[in-house]
Design a protein that fits this description.
Length: 252
C-alpha cells in the first residue's frame, strides 16, 4: 500500500485525448477524455492523478509540467507517420495532430526537468518517435507474421506472453522473466530510437517494452497494465515503481 506518512503525495499528470460527441444536442463537440483505469491505477499506487488537456503554447505546457511530479503518456490515436518521415499507409488509423505535437512538447519538457515518464501503448510509440525511431503503421500489412496484437477478448484478459530482458528496469520491477499481457495495438516499434533499449519482446519479435538509457525513469510498455488490475494485480508493480521514481527525484 502507499506510504501514508509521506508528506505530500506526488501529482501525476496523464495526457488525455479528444473525442467528438456522437449524438444528441452536443453532437460534434469535442471533449477531453481519459480511460478510468489510469485514474484508479495511480490512486492505488499512492499518487494524485490529474488529467492534462491538450495545450498549444509551449510556455503554458512548461508551467503545466512544472506543476506535476510525473508524466503518463496514455493510449489512443495512431501517431502521425509524418513525424518519422513516412507518408500514410492505407491501413493507418485516425490521427490527432494537435495531440501528437502537444505530447512531443510534454515529453521534451519532462525530460528537461528530469520528471519520471511512463508511456502506455501509444505512449511507448510516441517515446520511440520522439527519440528518433520509427513505427510499423499497421502490423497486418507491415509485419505479416505478427501474432494477434489487437485482441478480441475483454481488456482485463491477458492474451499473449511477453519476455522481459534481463537486467532492465522493467525486469527488475516485475521480478519475472515472462509475463502475460493484454494487447490492443495495430502499430508497433519498427526502428528502435538511439538512446532507447528494449526491455520486453513478444514471441513474434514485436517490441513490447522500452526504457531510456539516458534518463533516470523513462519507460514504455505496449500493453495496457491499467486495464489488467482486476485480474492481474501484479501489474500495479509498474505504477508503484513509477511513483517511487517521483519520490526519488524529489529527494535528489
Ligand atoms: Mn502486443
Amino acid at each position: 500500500m502507499p506510504n501514508k506518512n509521506r508528506e505530500k503525495l506526488p501529482i501525476i499528470g496523464i495526457s488525455a485525448t479528444l473525442i467528438a460527441v456522437e449524438s444528441g444536442q452536443f453532437m460534434g463537440l469535442e471533449r477531453v477524455a481519459l480511460g478510468e483505469g489510469y485514474i484508479q491505477a495511480i490512486q492505488l499506487s499512492g499518487g494524485i492523478p490529474i488529467i492534462l488537456p491538450i495545450l498549444k503554447d509551449r510556455a503554458f505546457i512548461r508551467q503545466q509540467m512544472q506543476f506535476i511530479d510525473g508524466l503518463i503518456l496514455s493510449g489512443g490515436y495512431d501517431v502521425s507517420p509524418l513525424l518519422y518521415g513516412e507518408e500514410p499507409n492505407k491501413n493507418l488509423g485516425a490521427l490527432c495532430l494537435d495531440r501528437d505535437h502537444y505530447e512531443l512538447h510534454l515529453l521534451e519538457i519532462a525530460r528537461d526537468l528530469h520528471k519520471p515518464i511512463l508511456g502506455i501503448c501509444r505512449g511507448l510509440q510516441l517515446i520511440n518517435v520522439a527519440f528518433g525511431g520509427t513505427l510499423y503503421q499497421d502490423l497486418e500489412s507491415g509485419f505479416p507474421h505478427a501474432l494477434q496484437h489487437d485482441q478480441k477478448s475483454k481488456p482485463e484478459e491477458a492474451t499473449h506472453t511477453v519476455t522481459l530482458t534481463a537486467c532492465t528496469k522493467l525486469q527488475q520491477v516485475m521480478q519475472e522473466n515472462v509475463i502475460l499481457t493484454n494487447s490492443f495495438h495495430h502499430q508497433a516499434i519498427k526502428d528502435l530510437a538511439p538512446g532507447i533499449m528494449v526491455n520486453a519482446y513478444a514471441k513474434d519479435g514485436i517490441i513490447e517494452g522500452i526504457e531510456s538509457k539516458e534518463d533516470a525513469f523513462v519507460l514504455g510498455v505496449q500493453w495496457h497494465p491499467e486495464l489488467m488490475l482486476s485480474k492481474h494485480p501484479k501489474m500495479l508493480k509498474l505504477f508503484r515503481a513509477f511513483i517511487e521514481a517521483t519520490h526519488l527525484r524529489r529527494t535528489e
